[in-house]
Amino acid sequence: MSRIVIPGEVLVEKPLRTENAMIEDNKTFSTVLGIFNDEKGILTPLEGLWYPRRGDIVLGIIEEARLNSYNVELSSPFKGIIIAKFVETRLQRGDVVEAEVKELDESKTVVLMRPRKLFGGKVFDVKPSKIPRIIGKASTMLQQIRDGTKSSVTVGMNGRIWVKGGNVELAIKAIHKISEEAHTSGLTERVKELLESPRQGV
Amino acid sequence: MGSSTNKPELIVNGKRLDGRGFADLRPMKIIAGGLKNAAGSAYMEWGNNKVLAAVYGPKEALPKHTQDPDKAVIKCKYSMAPFSSLEEHNRSGPNRRAIEISKVTREVFEKVILREDFPGSEIDIFIEVLQSDGGTRAAGITTAAVALATSGIPMTDLPYAISVGKVGDTLILDLNKAEDNYSDADMPIAIGPRNNDILLLQMDGSLTKEQISEGLTMAKKAGESVARLQREALKAPYERILEKYKI
């Protein structure tokens, strides 16, 4: 059974190691507004910030091109950096790049690797807490959007999404629908309906 | 405070001016979210008070000298709109009172936000009083807590605040403007409902030791309904969608 919990609410009356929770007096408390699954012991935040992790794919915008590094804006409290020697072509301020998180260094700067420049397209932000739902289990949801709209869609864990080609409007509409209804079940079918409904704008 | 010579009768036939009992709160309503450009927001109506709170961040703390390399800094701004009260508020810029309330509000949230997760960043809390009728700092803290929760900033608790006052020898809860101006004491309290931690305690006028502890008990008891309202407000937008699809 899942239930909505608020910060400071008791999850279980015993210590439980789970994300976004804290343990005090042998009890586990939530620190976020989220959905707690009692059986699995998993707390999924409904609203939340992205916390960088090794291997996360993110979308950033180059903020400053320096001699041997690039400062990247990641729409999060953490600043990103790309070491210039790992970049094949010179990047410019304003370029959109997809990159992988290499590490979070001691000054809480996100060191990025394997950058790939994205040309054209549309970039927009959603809540980072909704990204896992937009991707779906084994990226089924994302594949469904790609198939339904014939767009190329790249999703960054930091909550930034890039869409190009195909029916961009419909793709964005579908993504916003998922982000709004992320906590409900049977969403895949409803998105399918939206994608298959009388061709909007095509 | 009770300095005025033409002090009105605040308690008539065992009832307060607006017909409430001594421990009754004014009717309240909280709406979570609403401001699209803010990371989190909330709106609250508490009696005749109308308060809007917005949260931005965490983001890089600027100017840079305000940064703390170990934890996030919190910046709080409480302000009353020029049209919010009966008295003149020529400009809504910070005055002595607003600076004080901003400081105490900031200190409430410094205790509940897990600041160590975001070193070097800042979290901005804005509290705007649109209409005031006594007890706006309590309403501001209660609203800002909901706004923070909707922004997803990790917190150990969801605080609320409530004011306790004294008329003659009677303790009353949730003072309105007239009671605030003419009562013998006013004590705003912010409470973290998880362990009933006291996060803020200010006092104007005088209360005895026994009256303070009695006032705290009253505030905690009445505060349960405020905490419940905050919880319902946070859950409402999600439950609406669940209901829409009857899941």
Poorly predicted runs of chain B are: none
Distance between the termini of chain B: 54 Å
CATH class of chain B: Alpha Beta
Unreliable stretches covering 5 or more consecutive residues of chain A: none
Architecture blueprint of SSEs:
The complex is a heterodimer of chains A (202) and B (247).
Chain A: E1 2-5, E2 10-12, E3 21-24, E4 27-30, E5 34-37, E6 42-45, E7 57-65, E8 69-73, E9 79-83, E10 96-104, E11 109-118, E12 122-125, H1 131-135, H2 140-149, E13 152-155, E14 160-164, H3 168-180, H4 187-196
Parallel strand pairs in A: 9-11
Antiparallel strand pairs in A: 1-5, 2-4, 3-4, 5-6, 7-8, 7-10, 8-9, 10-11, 12-14, 13-14
Helix pairs in contact in A: 2-3, 2-4, 3-4
Chain B: E1 11-12, E2 15-16, E3 28-32, E4 40-46, E5 49-60, E6 73-80, H1 96-112, E7 121-131, H2 136-151, E8 160-167, E9 170-173, H3 177-182, E10 185-192, E11 197-201, E12 204-205, H4 209-244
Parallel strand pairs in B: 6-7
Antiparallel strand pairs in B: 1-2, 3-4, 4-5, 5-7, 8-9, 8-10, 10-11, 10-12
List keywords for this structure.
heterodimer; A: 202 residues; alpha+beta; OB fold (Dihydrolipoamide Acetyltransferase, E2P); Ribosomal Protein S8, Chain: A, domain 1; 3 domains; 5-stranded mixed β-barrel; 3-stranded antiparallel β-sheet; 4 helices; 14 strands; 19% helix; 37% strand; B: 247 residues; Ribosomal Protein S5, domain 2; 5-stranded mixed β-sheet; 5-stranded antiparallel β-sheet; 12 strands
Could you explain how this protein is built, in words?
The complex is a heterodimer of chains A (202) and B (247). Chain A is of the alpha+beta class. Chain A folds into three domains: 2-45, Beta Barrel (OB fold (Dihydrolipoamide Acetyltransferase, E2P)), CATH 2.40.50; 57-118, OB fold (Dihydrolipoamide Acetyltransferase, E2P) (Beta Barrel); 122-196, K Homology domain, type 1 (Ribosomal Protein S8, Chain: A, domain 1), CATH 3.30.1370.10. Chain A is 19% helix and 37% strand. Chain A is built from four helices and 14 strands. In chain A, the strands form four sheets. In chain A, strands 7-8-9-11-10 form a five-stranded mixed barrel. A three-stranded antiparallel sheet of chain A has the order 1-5-6, with no helix packed on it. In chain A, a hairpin with a 2-residue loop joins β3 (21-24) and β4 (27-30). The longest helix of chain A has 13 residues, at 168-180. Chain A starts with a strand and ends in a 6-residue tail after the last helix. Chain B has 247 residues and is of the alpha+beta class. Chain B has a single domain (26-159, 189-210, 223-244), classed as Ribosomal Protein S5, domain 2. In chain B, 30% of the residues lie in helices and 30% in strands. Chain B contains four helices and twelve strands. Chain B has helices spanning 96-112, 136-151, 177-182, 209-244, and strands spanning 11-12, 15-16, 28-32, 40-46, 49-60, 73-80, 121-131, 160-167, 170-173, 185-192, 197-201, 204-205. In chain B, the strands form three sheets. A five-stranded mixed sheet of chain B has the order 3-4-5-7-6. In chain B, α1 packs across α2 (136-151) and α2 packs across α4 (209-244). The chains are: A alpha+beta (202), B alpha+beta (247). Chains A and B meet through loops of A and β5, α2 and α4 of B.
